[in-house]
Fold this protein.
Amino acid sequence: MQALLVFLSIAALSLLASSRALDPGRFPALARLAASGFLFVLLGIFLGPSVAGVLTERHLEAMRPVMALGLGTAGVLLGLNLEPRLLRLLPRSVYLSGLAHSGTAFFFVALPLLVPLVFTSARGLLGAVGAAAMLGAAASLSSGHSAVLAWRAGRLDRARGLGVALLTMLDDAVGLGVLALALMIGAASNVGEGLGLVCLALLLGVMCGALLAFLTHSLKDLAELTTVTLGGVVLVSGAAAYLRVSPLLAGVACGATLAVVGGRTSERVARALGRVERPVFLVLVFLVGCAVHARDYWAWVLMPAFVGLRFLGKMLGGRFARRLVQQTLVLPPRLGYALIAQGGLALCLVAEYGMLVPGGLSRRVLDVVVMGAVVNELLAGQAFQYVVDPPRGISETSADSDKVAA
Amino acid sequence: MKGAVIRLLLLMVLLAIISRAQVLRADSGTPVMLAAGALLLCGLFAGKVAKGLGLPRLTGYLLVGVAVGPYALGFIPNAGVKGLELVKGLAVSLIALVAGTELRLGLIRRVGARVALLCAAVCGVTFLVCFGATFAIKPFLPFLADMTVPQALAVSALLSTVVVSFSPTVTIAIVQETSARGAFTEFLMALVIIGDLLVMVAFALAAGLTKASFGGGLDVTELLGGVGWELFGSVAVGLVLAVGMLVYMRGVKQELPLFLVGLCFAAAEGGTRLHLSPLLVALAAGALIANLDEHAGERINNAIQQAGLPVFALFFAAAGAGLKLDSLLTVGPAAMLLVALRGVAIWFSCRRFAPADDPRLKRYLWMGLISQAGVTFGLAALVSRTFPTFGPQVEVLIVAMITAHELVGPVLTRRALAASGEIRADDAQGTA
């Protein structure tokens, strides 16, 4: 019955999202949240156990397989985007640039927030370090969708749009790396066992990815290809959930293996999976929203600090990043403003952490990041204006103009 | 076919590894998604292998489900298979929706009366034969042995009512797979659907009599009310759904497969909660749409064929995984006797009562009536819940019979369609 309820809620919101009520001209913030899927987070928070209570904790427990499927799908899509040829072509300065903006935001958030987490943690220093690292990892992530949309709308030139998108793709690796570390610390009784579980997730993903590449290799029929792809994604997510390891990491390993060994098949698989990406994402963020405990007052205290520190980290990190790739990549002035939107992966990270690491601290991390991500999404709309319409005094250098022309 | 065999074997190796890895973990998570992914992929490639061997794909789905399921190799835990009930309801609704679009008024006028008469004859003869046999072997059936004669008669009647039932799901899935079209196929589909309605009414009556024989009293009003609600309530809800679908199809011209899957999901879940028959709800919806707007009926048919492949493969593989092979050992002889008698009764009544104008009906129709699946499972579970003293043992007997019928039925159904000469393609895209 809970599945029916979730379906009906999402169907209702889909209808609402397509209605005139969300006209960007009249309600830009609401329209932005609907377009990015974050409106579903808010709906989840509202219907979840801590507010209206339409969905109870028992319902959410029963919906865990669906959440695992969403995380696994996100992981596979992420892994499929790892284009080995493209990654090899990128100069080292681009990697350093990605690391600079994400690393700065990571340290800006993780270090100061470690202090209150230590004092409120029942799991000792190690637990607090893991939780602070997850806050930092979520803060380090940025979404490139604003840049891509601005480029498609003609408000940002192609080179700059793609430059921002590339940097935001590279920060995913930081987020996933930190997630793996945090799971090693928190998901098992000792670090050795935690490391074993992370390795098991990666191994499972590699095996499923290789098998999926073989299964889809000679399939010509689109319906069959879609079915096998979906089956493979469900299998890797389900196996990870069954073995209580990370579906997200297993999915990334699966997608990356497929991208490496699958050749052209991986492109067809990505296209097939792209057809279900949006509905799966919406269900996932809805469930993540349901898991938020809106009455955790500590989370409300930490959230403004999280948003503020991340903002500062992105501003400074953006400057570092721009300086590091001056010769190779064209980036807009005031890059930091283009990196404010947080995107769905941050939600995936904390949802995964909440699923696998027991205790109140992981729940608080989820509360802070989810609410913070909604605020960041709202801020991002305004912030991006500074990227496409920079104030007077900040103009392109002639070198930038030459690179854009090239 | 060799490629499909290798892929299937590799999948099973992966499942074996996952199953071994789970043993090493102190705590395990929920296996529902694992079951879904594994059964979907295994079903798909087993279907290809079965096709290569000249069998229906559906048989491949069922057999691989049995193989990897909890009662054979045990790669998929029982909890995972049970968690797929939702998919089963969805598949039944989708299949019934397609079947409904085939029920045109013209067809009902043309063959309705003849089908109803033959259905009554087949069900009547089969019921009498099974009823007589069950009562005759009373001393050998542990749950009947200690009952009084009236009680044993009532329980025999209840068991025989369930044993009579057919499987519209399997029949429609095989018709979809083979793209069979023609008078014989129409007759077969109409017969299994009407047979199902007949069994629903007969089951309600037999359950009421059984309750009365055990001292529970016979409340005729409640009995008729229950049957009426299930039949007419289902049709009414189906008509409402049909209007909803038509409005959607005229107003929103995209994402029809997704919409239909969502609606069938809601119909299956909601129907079960309201004590309606999800099969009848979807059947009525499909029939109304096809008769109001022929083009809309065709669009639904095409849309479900797109969404059908994963749903059908998963549904039948899950059905196979749920078959309790051990029950075949415990109640095997009695179950096999009833299977054989049911088959003979159906064969005899078809030979004797089928319309003479089409000799194919006399010769081959019986083969299409052997399958049993979802409806029979549902009725067996209902017997178990309603009569806790003897119901679970009756359920084991019926499940043993279903196991045999599921393995043989699809092959016979396809053979009947092939012999009738109405199979158009042996591999319709995107179906069973």
Notes: Residues 120 and 363 of chain A are 13 Å apart (CA to CA). Confidence is low (pLDDT under 50) at residues 394-406 of chain A.
